[in-house]
Amino acid sequence: MMEALSECYEQQSLDGVEVYVCLLCGRSLSRKQRIQSHLVSIHNRSPVKERKRYREDDSVPVPKRTLRRWKKDVKQPLTNTPESSVTPESSVTESSFTPESSVTCESKFSEECKLLEGVEYDLTNSPCSTEALSETVYGDEFLSSSDSDSYSDHDSLNETSSECDANLSGSDFSELDDFETEGEHAETDDVSMKTLSVHESQAFCLVSYILKYNLSASAGKDLLQLLQTLCPESQYFRKLKYEEMFSSISKNEPEVIHYCCFCNKRFPDDPDDFRCSIGDCPGLRYIGPISSQTMSNRQARCFFIIADVESQLCSLIERNNIWDEIQRTKQSINVNETPSHITDIIDGEAYLKHCQPGGCLHSENAVSAIFNTDGVPLFNSSKVKLWPIFICINELPPAQRFARENTILAGLWQGKDKPPFFQYIAAFGDAVSKLHSDGISVQPPGLFTTVNVRLTVLLASVDLQAKAYVANMTMHNGDYGCITCEERGLNVKHGKGYSHCYPYRPRIEKPPMRESDDLKYVKGVQASRKERIMGICGHSGLMALEYFDMVQGAVPDYMHGVLLGVTKTLMSKWFSSTQSGKPFFIGKHLNKISKRMGKIQPPDYIERIPMNLEKNYTHFKATELQTWLLYYALPCLKGYLPDVYLEHFSCLSEGIHILLQDKISQLDLDRAETLLERFYEDFCQLYGQGSCGLNVHNIGSHLVYYVRLWGPLFGWSCFGFEDSNADLLNTAHGTGNVLKPVLKMKHAQFRIWSLDIPSYVEGPEMHFLSRMVPKWRKRWQNLKKFKNCYISGAVTSCEFENPDREFILNRTQAVSVKDLKKVKRVKVRSQYLYSKEYSRMNKRICYVVLCSNNNSYSVEYFLLNEVSGIVYAVGHALEVQEPQHVCQVAGHHLLVVKPTLDVDIFEVDTIKEKLFYITPDERLCVIAKMPNQYGHGVFK
To answer: What pTM does this model have?
Structure first.
């Protein structure tokens, strides 16, 4: 190690303090720092990019922009980042030394640029050997790889560079309880880092502050005036206007479309054409009488906005890892064979059909999208709503697909009623159709050439009301309200009046499925509001989307239909006093059921702990209804709800659990179809025909059909879009028309989210921006790597009684008890596991796990063998009971177990996942698996 250190570093002294200077990049390092992490980061650097050939080829000139930046760096050396800073006594700027081996690069400099210090060159030209990278410097001691089993702060040497950087810099993260923000990045070559002008960086900082704290326009202007008052010497602040801040960040100009407020006819593009062209329609384009129509300060009466989707899509693709994720998804598609399991949208039959030769997704540069529109109340005291149109890219994984920063705002309308949907959706369709026909030229990170990306909208995830508006059909409570089949429905007596229901029909009596072309081009052309044809009321704006199938593409919404629809309706029937006297009414037991539910302690991947059911069941959110449907209801209702109703509900619970899985087989689909069809068949008999609406019809007849077409329910749910709606409201201020201010805020927000902050030159502006844009997930502090996991927290000694000592030593292969240390938390792969002895997790149960042998355990604590570096789990086995399930017919995703005193010890990497441990009372213990790895957190 000493020999490698002498080859790679030069020892120098500054004010009596000993420092080491890297001969590869000129960086100064104290002896107490992790020199190995610096060596690994240099060793793992990507090869010289094509645009930097001047660093290896003398004949290639240095770009003028690079020379100017080098001169600037000499005059204003950068401040060390937190991860590369040293103690005050040994702090030295990076520009204090010049590597002797940088002669090749210096020969290219101008006379002034020869003064530049710290120029790096490629590792292939360095004398640094790979043996030097296989050792660690820790304090004043040199530790070989054989010492890496220790549980001190240094890490195992066979760890990857990214893991090494993340673990060795834990102290640089801001602490939040047991977690820290994972926002630190590996060092990059300063020469290749991007820069922002002074004006751009200041504008980004100001706008990011306004967006983070949801400041109104008046508050933003006051903030700017305050800066002008406190910094009168700044020429930039003195002349800066509020609108200029946003225009310097995003110059996207949306398309503002005016329409007649009487007949919804779209006005021509000519702004001086202010009269409606429909017959005797008195509609005017601008506010006021005819005399006001030609005034310079005229304002449109009715309008909506179509955003610049092209620029947003370009910004999205130009972000780091986005195009790589898309290409990884495209490469995993095999159009020549049917996948054995459905895991996401890309495994659906309809999606694979478009990937065939000649299909719109056959090209590797073709992507698809799902869109959503819904009414969002703007104020609590009025009926004014916003109707945004959002689109998400299907080829991104669900965790990224529905993330706020990756959701594109395509359109926006504001008003008290509803937008003119034909004009609104048609204008949206025209905008995105251009992206399919013409495509966009974009250069993703890491590519030297531009690619032509084509976008095709294939899916629409909307609730029943919005679906009727978008498709221009009758509502869900009218004849032929189903967009999937030609079921007419019946009007039946219900309560004090009548309701429109969709009764169950056997398979041989089921109505035929609709055809997309029939809806678009036949019935849509011939029908009108007064003369409807099987529920079709006329043209639909979806006609502008060439590849959009109005039957297969308009999926039933799981969030509104299953959770906020059927599940909430059943809770109301069971608990509401208006249903007293009915055989399914159990409102008199609601207090006892609520106490059962209050005893349940969900694991950490369930966002909300159980609420008081008695007081809040009518106000449950969609995520709470989902947890009630899948986990809480069956154990809590056991013994109170009559068995026939409980068995009926268990069919819905297990069927939806299957359709939410991230790996669905054909057998799973067949079972889900059987369960949901049985739920539909018995619903009318148990709750009356009047309660069997279109949501129940979709669940029993069409939900499995759409899963076969487009993958699991979470892949096209409205959860992510509802989150974007909530974020949109945060940017709305004022009581007037907020369309343009909101769109301006969203464009600026999207542009700021597109900044890859770590790729920019370090500075106070970038540090401030990284605080204003908290996009990094949280993780544990001070993770220490061992052979089969990471450990976190204190490592303590342990003692065992004589009967257990030999058993523990034998299973852990330890020679002495002194070799074993007790651990309370470990990270296995991407899972964070807790033991029962971790007392801070007192409101949740996170210590019940499923192992690879399909046995479940309650983990008491973890044991670390310091000699072998292997971590073991010590737990009590959970024994499956008879009967195995809460309900016998269905609900088999819940397994009844009993804790035992049998102790077992097993390696932690045999743990597959955490289980949901449900204990509503002492007599019933139930375990359940999460259906998918995404959970609720993706859609929060």
So the answer is: 0.79
